[in-house]
Amino acid sequence: MKASEGIETSGRKPSRPPVVAPGHSPGSVTDQITAVVLDRAPRWWWVAFGISFALVMLLLRALTKLLFEGTGIWGLNIPVGWGFAIINFVWWIGIGHAGTLISAILLLARQEWRTSINRFAEAMTLFAVACAGIFPLIHVGRPWLAYWLLPYPNTMDLWPQFRSPLVWDVFAVSTYATVSLLFWYVGLIPDMATLRDRAEGKFAKVAYGFLSMGWRGSATHWHNYETAYLLLAGLATPLVVSVHTVVSFDFAVGQLPGWHATIFPPYFVAGAIFAGFAMVITLAIPLRAAFGLKDFITTRHLQNMGKILLATGLIVAYGYLVEIFMAWYSGNWYEQFMILNRIQGPYQKQWMALLLCNVLAPQLLWFRRVRSSPVLLFMVAMFVNVGMWLERFVIVVTSLHRDFLPSSWGMYSGTFWDWATFIGTIGLFLALLFLFIRFLPMISIFEMKTIVPKQVPNTAEEAPE
Amino acid sequence: MSAPHSNAHSNPYEPPSDLERLQRHGWTLGAVGVAACLVGWILDSNQFFHSYLVAWLFWLGIALGSLAILMLHHLTGGAWGLMVRRTLEAATRTLPALAILFLPILLGMQEIFPWARPEAATDELIQQKAAYLNPAAFTLRGFFYLAIWSLFAFILSWLSLRQDRTADPGLIRRMQAVAAPGLAIYCLLATFASVDWLMSLDPHWYSSLFGVYFFVGQGLSALAFLIVIAVYLSQRQPMDSLFTPLHFHDYGKLMLAFVMIWAYIAFSQLLIIWSGNLPEEVGWYLERSHGIWKYVSILLALFHFLLPFLLLLSRDLKRNAKLLSKVAVLVLFMRWVDLYWLAAPSFGHEGLSFHWLDLATVVGIGGIWFALFVGQLRSRPLLPINDPYLEEALADD
Amino acid sequence: MSTPPPSKGPFALMAEFRSSKELIRAIRQARGAGYTQLEAYTPYPIEEVWEELGHHRSWLPLIVLIGGIFGALFGSLLQYWVSVINYPMNVGGRPLNSWIAFIPVTFETTILFAAGAAVLGMFALNKLPMPYHPVFNVERFALASRGRYFLAIGRWDPQFDRRETAEFLHRLAPQEVSEVAS
Question: Are A149 and A170 spatial neighbours (Cβ–Cβ below 8 Å)?
């Protein structure tokens, strides 16, 4: 399936939209993608960046208040000692996973269509992980001592407790952040060289030259580079699975009904990819319209992302079903109560809404027409974004709020500052993303060039200047 | 390669005549095995049924895993799948025969499953589950699963045959339209089948990951089996000139992926149950970590995961058909060990209790199954001659 | 192209081509003519170019394997030493050497070290960062990152001769032949 992905060489095959719109050459790809970075910023960019920057200010305001007054400003109280912070942490880290999936797993599976969305999805991963990382840090109570989580020789002669999944989380998330950053930066090096060679201003030339490290694009360079990139992809694939698995262990290794379920690891991983692809779709559809990149992010991409959204959505639905069945089959009174409480208890509305968003809405994706329509696909993705947040809310809160003893029952809801922190991280995420698309090529230029020659067989690879 | 073959009557991918010999061997082995099984049934019916369940699940796993891999191929495309599509289809067409071979399990239900015995009436926990764990529901569900799986197998095989005859390009879309819900339904039914046929051997125990463990194992069985068959075919006319190292590289990568997924699922379940340490769950692992079963568990970790994993990391090994098939044989053997390890400790025999009937049932069911499989494989061209992507797949090197 | 040139004169001679096909043909002819110190520059990776230049496998997989083994040992030994030797603590009755619980962290350190080895190893094998390199003295070389293909013959090639090599390159029908000032 390598030679003629996208372009139809035989009339007998079912037609598929191409990965790159026809008529492009290595030169035109370079020009069109670098133009986004090297031209002046459009006015809407300033407006959008301004709004997200205002939300970053809101985040800073909320964090300042937290530092001065402590976690009492949140809605946390016994029995619900884990609230928005863990929900948002899991939500953000899950969103990040689609980026790694696109850049690593689809690369190993030789899915060429990934090329035009991988850079941007990797950036999304990094920013999502940055937003996710904030929450455990501020939830420890004294964030300035968060480095105590790391194993280092210290005067107190204390070490982390390695049987705790929260310590595994420290390793998993920091490894994930590091490897994602490496992967992203390595992917950027050849494109930085392209920007260096095309930038007009002195400062831009020096900055991109510095970041490209003297990349020359020699055959030796490329060969080692390709080997490194494939190996990184091979390492990132099990890594991304391990990260959300460890996140699921945060819940599952305990004994609480609703958390202690062996299905959690694969079900959390699928949920993460589900949420992440929804976010990629949410961002890619407006951006490709705003920057005129429909030649590179084509209907084919939307269709394929729609299919992945459907597949992972079905796995998540499978998880819900197996959870309910096993709660009954276990014959365990507490398991059965937990599920009934989820379905009929005070958080019934949230539970029904999550079924609507995560199970019912994605079923529309069985229809090709929905997958091919940017508007409808965007709407389904928005449902999933909300649904996956609600899923974490339901998992965290319904298991905690009715403790084993009815005397320890309570209710939970977020306060203004809970919401301010959450919305603030959305602002941070968007602000970073807008900076990224302004200063770095959001589509991998060199990788696009590798598919262009196959797209345009038997024509000159480069038009004369 | 040459242009696509529009003439439906020509068959350039005739199965090699050797296969007939293989089929005869299959029948012979099957007959010997069945005779031994009958003797064993008379001598020790309890042991016979226990051995039979494991052996049946082993061969069923190959056929069902083939169905899953076939549907996965229809959904994702790719040269790797086209080259072995006929092998997979032939394996799935044995499902009705496996449904007939399900009958002895119904006969031995009381000897296999504690919940089917009269004593179960006094067990409060089992009584709570009686709506699900009762002989009538078990029988109905078993045939329901097998019927639905067979249905999907035959629809896909039928569409594939029509593609050979008519060369209608629209059939690809129709196969995809069957495969997408088919894969979801397969996973769902396999989950409940895993509860019926394995988890309920210990009716108090439960684990929500068990279904995934069950169908991932089936996928791995099928991959190992298809590698063995592909290597066999690649040494004979006409496939010898068509299989390239690149194809085997892909199969090796897929097997590596499944070995890793299997280990991931097995480890996740172990870690969660070990950490929770709840009495109703952890007993299942305690049984398997004491006495001789401890060594079987270690054997699984080493030879179901570690050794194949390390070997399959090598690019050279994946491209070497002969070596790859040796790893596949190891994996197939370990698949049986895994099923034995899942089932046998719950039967409550003392110690390891490996019995000659364990071998006889595998050979008996296996001989019959394999002969049927080879018969199906011989009945059609070895490649889907009119698939629009075939030309591309053959040029892929 | 990393060996420093032994004597004065241009660092290399460089020809520019408009397509990868022309470049690959030129490499074949140059190798046929007996040149050995060749380097090609392309805007995107082309495996065929690497093979035509007569190179073989990269050392990188071995470096990554060593990194991974080191990471696995580091993670597992750290946890064992902390939990069993230096700071033994009874947690919920679990054994001191709770190897099952140590696997996630061991896995993460394995990946971390292997990925670090992949990136640093790639930099080392490519001799990056390298702020200055003579090929950048050719003005049109900036197009190598856009859509042009370059072939350079190093001065330290035994067959290198400023005039003859330039003539040879001209015969390959390039866009332009330039001297790379050292």
Answer: yes
Q: How many domains does chain B have?
A: 1
Tally of CA atoms within 13 A in the half-sphere of B89 that contains its CB: 27
- List the single residue in A220, A228, A242 with the smallest CB-CB distance to C107: A242
Domain annotation covers residue C50: yes
Domain count along chain A: 1
Task: Calculate the CA C53 to chain-centre distance.
Answer: 14
Q: With contacts defined as CB-CB under 8 Å, which chain B residues touch A261? A: 208, 272
d(CA A127, CA A425): 10
Residue C150, helix vs strand vs coil = strand
Residue at B27 is within a domain: no
Chain B nearest C-alpha distance from A33 (Å): 30
Instruction: Please check whether residues C22 and C53 belong to one and the same domain.
Output: yes
Backbone angles phi, psi at A94, to 5 degrees: -65, -40
Beta strands per DSSP E along A60-207: none
How many CB pairs lie under 8 A apart between chains A and C? 200
Range of the domain at A69: 26-455
Q: Model confidence over A424-442: pLDDT tens digits?
A: 999 999 999 999 988 888 8
DSSP letter, residue B130: T
pLDDT at site B3: 42
Tell me which DSSP letter residue A160 carries.
-
Contact B142, B189 (CB under 8 A): no
Instruction: Residue B273: give the domain boundaries.
Output: 34-113+135-393
Site of tokens 């705790």:
A164
Tokens standing for residue A120: 């941007």
* Distance in Å, alpha carbon of A49 to nearest chain B alpha carbon: 39
Across all residues in chain A, what is the average pLDDT? Answer: 88
Note whether residue B364 is domain-resident.
yes
Give every strand in the sheet of C176-180, ordered side by side: C38-41, C149-154, C12-17, C176-180
pLDDT (tens digit per residue) in A140-190: 888 899 899 899 998 988 899 999 999 999 999 999 999 999 998 998 899
Answer yes or no: is B17 within a domain: no
Sign of the torsion angle spanned by Cα atoms B263, B269, B271, B274: negative
Residue A461 lies in a domain: no
- CB contact, 8 Å: C56 with chain B? no
Cis preceding-peptide flag for B238 (omega within 30 of 0): yes
Residues C148 and C97 reside in one and the same domain: no
Q: pLDDT (tens digit, 9 = 90+) per residue, B244-256? A: 888 999 999 999 9
pLDDT exceeds 60 at position A8: no
- Residue indicated by tokens 């196959």: A454
Give mean pLDDT, residues C27-55: 84
> Cis peptide leading into A79, omega within 30 of 0?
yes
Contact yes or no for A428/A133 (Cβ under 8 A): no
d(C-alpha C97, C-alpha B36), whole Å? 47
Q: Is A454 exposed, middle or buried (0-12, 13-18, 19+ CB in 10 A)?
A: middle
Please determine, for residue A370, whether its predicted confidence score (pLDDT) is greater than 80.
yes
Interchain CB contact of C100 with B (< 8 Å): yes
The helix or strand, by DSSP H or E, that contains position B325, with its residue range, turns out to be: helix B321-347
Regarding whether C17 and C35 lie in a shared domain, the answer is yes
Distance CA C43, CA C40 (A): 10
Other beta carbons within 10 angstroms of residue C118's beta carbon come to 29
Taking the CA of residue B232 and the nearest CA in chain A, the distance in Å comes to 25
Please count the helices (runs of H) and the strands (runs of E) in chain A.
16, 0
Q: Chain B residue with minimal CA distance to A324? A: B208
Q: Contact A266/B173, CB-based, under 8 Å?
A: no
B135 prior amide bond cis, ω within 30: no
Q: Does residue C87 sit in the same domain as residue C116?
A: yes
In which domain, by residue range, is C75 found?
60-125
Q: At A35, which amino acid appears?
A: A
Domain-located, residue A419? yes
Report the chain B residue with the minimal C-alpha distance to residue C99: B271
Beta strands C12-17; C176-180: pairing state: antiparallel
